[in-house]
Amino acid sequence: xxxxxxxxxxxxxxxxxxxxxxxxxxxxxxxxxxxxxxxxxxxxxxxxxxxxxxxxxxxxxxxxxxxxxxxxxxxxxxxxxxxxxxxxxxxxxxxxxxxxxxxxxxxxxxxxxxxxxxxxxxxxxxxxxxxxxxxxxxxxxxxxxxxxxxxxxxxxxxxxxxxxxxxxxxxxxxxxxxxxxxxxxxxxxxxxxxxxxxxx
Length: 200
Hints:
Oligomer: single chain
Number of strands: 6
Structural class: alpha+beta
Number of domains: 2
Largest sheet: 4 strands, mixed
CATH topology of the largest domain: Ribosomal Protein S8, Chain: A, domain 1
Low-confidence stretches: 39-44, 52-74
CATH architecture of the largest domain: 2-Layer Sandwich
Protein backbone atom coordinates (compact mmCIF):
# COMPACT_ATOMS: atom_id res chain seq x y z
CA UNK A 1 0.00 0.00 0.00
CA UNK A 2 1.60 3.24 -1.12
CA UNK A 3 0.91 6.63 0.40
CA UNK A 4 1.65 9.96 -1.18
CA UNK A 5 3.18 12.94 0.58
CA UNK A 6 -0.20 14.05 2.00
CA UNK A 7 -0.65 10.62 3.63
CA UNK A 8 -3.49 9.82 1.21
CA UNK A 9 -3.91 6.46 -0.47
CA UNK A 10 -3.11 6.15 -4.16
CA UNK A 11 -5.87 5.54 -6.69
CA UNK A 12 -4.87 1.89 -7.04
CA UNK A 13 -5.06 1.41 -3.28
CA UNK A 14 -8.45 3.07 -3.12
CA UNK A 15 -9.80 0.75 -5.82
CA UNK A 16 -8.35 -2.25 -4.02
CA UNK A 17 -9.92 -1.18 -0.73
CA UNK A 18 -13.34 -0.68 -2.35
CA UNK A 19 -13.16 -4.13 -3.92
CA UNK A 20 -12.30 -5.78 -0.60
CA UNK A 21 -14.82 -3.82 1.45
CA UNK A 22 -17.66 -4.51 -1.00
CA UNK A 23 -17.12 -8.26 -0.75
CA UNK A 24 -16.83 -8.23 3.05
CA UNK A 25 -19.92 -9.27 5.06
CA UNK A 26 -21.06 -6.53 7.35
CA UNK A 27 -21.93 -7.43 10.92
CA UNK A 28 -25.45 -6.15 11.36
CA UNK A 29 -25.78 -6.68 15.12
CA UNK A 30 -24.27 -3.95 17.18
CA UNK A 31 -21.91 -4.72 20.05
CA UNK A 32 -23.34 -1.86 22.07
CA UNK A 33 -25.77 -2.55 24.91
CA UNK A 34 -28.82 -0.36 24.60
CA UNK A 35 -30.65 0.30 27.82
CA UNK A 36 -34.37 0.64 27.44
CA UNK A 37 -35.97 2.85 30.05
CA UNK A 38 -39.21 0.97 29.56
CA UNK A 39 -37.64 -2.43 30.22
CA UNK A 40 -38.95 -3.95 33.44
CA UNK A 41 -36.60 -5.59 35.91
CA UNK A 42 -38.30 -8.75 37.08
CA UNK A 43 -37.75 -9.05 40.82
CA UNK A 44 -40.97 -10.87 41.66
CA UNK A 45 -39.63 -14.40 41.03
CA UNK A 46 -36.69 -13.66 43.34
CA UNK A 47 -39.03 -12.44 46.09
CA UNK A 48 -41.20 -15.52 45.70
CA UNK A 49 -38.12 -17.75 45.87
CA UNK A 50 -36.96 -16.04 49.06
CA UNK A 51 -40.41 -16.50 50.59
CA UNK A 52 -40.33 -20.20 49.71
CA UNK A 53 -36.89 -20.54 51.36
CA UNK A 54 -38.10 -18.81 54.54
CA UNK A 55 -41.27 -20.92 54.72
CA UNK A 56 -39.26 -24.10 54.13
CA UNK A 57 -36.85 -23.10 56.90
CA UNK A 58 -39.73 -22.53 59.33
CA UNK A 59 -41.24 -25.91 58.47
CA UNK A 60 -37.89 -27.67 58.87
CA UNK A 61 -37.31 -26.06 62.26
CA UNK A 62 -40.75 -27.16 63.42
CA UNK A 63 -40.27 -30.67 62.01
CA UNK A 64 -36.86 -31.04 63.62
CA UNK A 65 -38.26 -30.11 66.99
CA UNK A 66 -41.11 -32.60 66.65
CA UNK A 67 -38.80 -35.41 65.51
CA UNK A 68 -36.38 -34.71 68.35
CA UNK A 69 -39.16 -34.75 70.92
CA UNK A 70 -40.71 -37.89 69.44
CA UNK A 71 -37.34 -39.65 69.30
CA UNK A 72 -36.68 -39.02 72.98
CA UNK A 73 -40.14 -40.13 74.05
CA UNK A 74 -40.03 -43.30 71.95
CA UNK A 75 -36.44 -44.17 72.87
CA UNK A 76 -36.96 -43.91 76.63
CA UNK A 77 -40.69 -44.73 76.75
CA UNK A 78 -41.33 -41.28 78.21
CA UNK A 79 -44.73 -39.70 77.92
CA UNK A 80 -45.14 -36.04 77.12
CA UNK A 81 -45.36 -33.88 80.22
CA UNK A 82 -48.42 -31.64 80.39
CA UNK A 83 -48.63 -29.08 83.23
CA UNK A 84 -52.38 -29.72 83.42
CA UNK A 85 -52.13 -33.49 83.82
CA UNK A 86 -50.62 -35.99 86.23
CA UNK A 87 -48.17 -38.32 84.44
CA UNK A 88 -47.63 -41.97 85.25
CA UNK A 89 -44.74 -42.96 87.52
CA UNK A 90 -45.64 -40.62 90.38
CA UNK A 91 -47.82 -41.25 93.40
CA UNK A 92 -51.14 -39.44 93.54
CA UNK A 93 -50.25 -37.81 96.87
CA UNK A 94 -46.93 -36.49 95.58
CA UNK A 95 -48.63 -35.18 92.43
CA UNK A 96 -51.38 -33.45 94.44
CA UNK A 97 -48.80 -31.92 96.78
CA UNK A 98 -46.92 -30.50 93.81
CA UNK A 99 -50.07 -29.10 92.17
CA UNK A 100 -51.24 -27.49 95.42
CA UNK A 101 -47.82 -25.94 96.10
CA UNK A 102 -47.23 -28.04 99.21
CA UNK A 103 -43.86 -29.19 97.86
CA UNK A 104 -42.10 -25.89 98.34
CA UNK A 105 -39.51 -24.92 95.69
CA UNK A 106 -35.90 -25.38 96.66
CA UNK A 107 -34.83 -23.23 93.72
CA UNK A 108 -36.67 -20.40 91.92
CA UNK A 109 -35.79 -19.28 88.40
CA UNK A 110 -37.26 -15.98 87.21
CA UNK A 111 -37.06 -15.66 83.40
CA UNK A 112 -38.35 -12.08 83.19
CA UNK A 113 -36.13 -10.13 80.80
CA UNK A 114 -34.63 -13.24 79.18
CA UNK A 115 -34.64 -13.86 75.44
CA UNK A 116 -35.83 -17.29 74.28
CA UNK A 117 -32.30 -18.40 73.39
CA UNK A 118 -30.80 -17.27 76.68
CA UNK A 119 -33.68 -18.69 78.72
CA UNK A 120 -33.42 -22.08 77.02
CA UNK A 121 -29.66 -22.40 77.62
CA UNK A 122 -30.03 -21.12 81.18
CA UNK A 123 -32.73 -23.66 82.06
CA UNK A 124 -30.79 -26.55 80.50
CA UNK A 125 -27.74 -25.77 82.60
CA UNK A 126 -29.57 -25.00 85.85
CA UNK A 127 -32.00 -27.94 85.81
CA UNK A 128 -29.23 -30.45 85.10
CA UNK A 129 -27.15 -28.86 87.87
CA UNK A 130 -30.07 -29.18 90.31
CA UNK A 131 -30.65 -32.78 89.29
CA UNK A 132 -27.01 -33.71 89.94
CA UNK A 133 -27.24 -32.06 93.37
CA UNK A 134 -30.50 -33.89 94.12
CA UNK A 135 -32.45 -30.62 94.31
CA UNK A 136 -35.91 -31.78 93.32
CA UNK A 137 -38.58 -29.07 93.61
CA UNK A 138 -38.20 -26.05 91.33
CA UNK A 139 -40.29 -23.01 90.44
CA UNK A 140 -39.80 -21.51 86.98
CA UNK A 141 -41.37 -18.08 86.53
CA UNK A 142 -42.10 -17.57 82.84
CA UNK A 143 -44.26 -14.48 83.18
CA UNK A 144 -47.47 -13.95 81.27
CA UNK A 145 -49.59 -11.34 79.61
CA UNK A 146 -53.35 -11.52 79.62
CA UNK A 147 -54.87 -11.68 76.14
CA UNK A 148 -58.26 -12.46 74.68
CA UNK A 149 -57.78 -16.18 75.30
CA UNK A 150 -56.41 -15.83 78.82
CA UNK A 151 -52.80 -15.96 79.99
CA UNK A 152 -50.39 -15.66 77.08
CA UNK A 153 -46.67 -15.16 76.60
CA UNK A 154 -43.78 -16.51 74.53
CA UNK A 155 -41.88 -18.17 77.38
CA UNK A 156 -45.13 -19.47 78.89
CA UNK A 157 -45.68 -21.41 75.66
CA UNK A 158 -42.07 -22.42 75.03
CA UNK A 159 -40.84 -23.55 78.47
CA UNK A 160 -43.21 -26.57 78.71
CA UNK A 161 -41.93 -27.66 75.27
CA UNK A 162 -38.31 -27.36 76.36
CA UNK A 163 -39.00 -29.50 79.41
CA UNK A 164 -40.13 -32.30 77.05
CA UNK A 165 -36.85 -32.28 75.08
CA UNK A 166 -33.51 -33.88 75.94
CA UNK A 167 -31.65 -33.51 78.22
CA UNK A 168 -34.38 -32.15 80.48
CA UNK A 169 -37.17 -34.65 79.84
CA UNK A 170 -35.09 -37.58 81.16
CA UNK A 171 -34.61 -35.94 84.57
CA UNK A 172 -38.11 -34.49 85.14
CA UNK A 173 -40.82 -36.43 86.94
CA UNK A 174 -43.70 -33.95 86.67
CA UNK A 175 -44.61 -30.36 85.84
CA UNK A 176 -47.62 -28.31 86.95
CA UNK A 177 -48.85 -24.74 86.67
CA UNK A 178 -48.21 -22.93 89.93
CA UNK A 179 -50.82 -21.87 92.46
CA UNK A 180 -51.83 -18.17 92.47
CA UNK A 181 -49.50 -17.36 95.37
CA UNK A 182 -46.49 -18.54 93.29
CA UNK A 183 -47.48 -16.95 89.99
CA UNK A 184 -50.42 -18.97 88.70
CA UNK A 185 -50.24 -19.68 84.97
CA UNK A 186 -47.18 -17.46 84.73
CA UNK A 187 -45.07 -20.01 86.62
CA UNK A 188 -44.36 -23.73 86.61
CA UNK A 189 -43.64 -26.21 89.37
CA UNK A 190 -41.08 -28.77 88.24
CA UNK A 191 -40.37 -31.95 90.17
CA UNK A 192 -37.10 -33.66 89.28
CA UNK A 193 -36.32 -37.36 89.60
CA UNK A 194 -33.89 -38.51 92.21
CA UNK A 195 -30.32 -38.52 90.92
CA UNK A 196 -29.85 -42.23 91.63
CA UNK A 197 -32.98 -43.17 89.64
CA UNK A 198 -31.32 -42.33 86.30
CA UNK A 199 -27.90 -43.73 87.11
CA UNK A 200 -28.83 -47.15 88.51
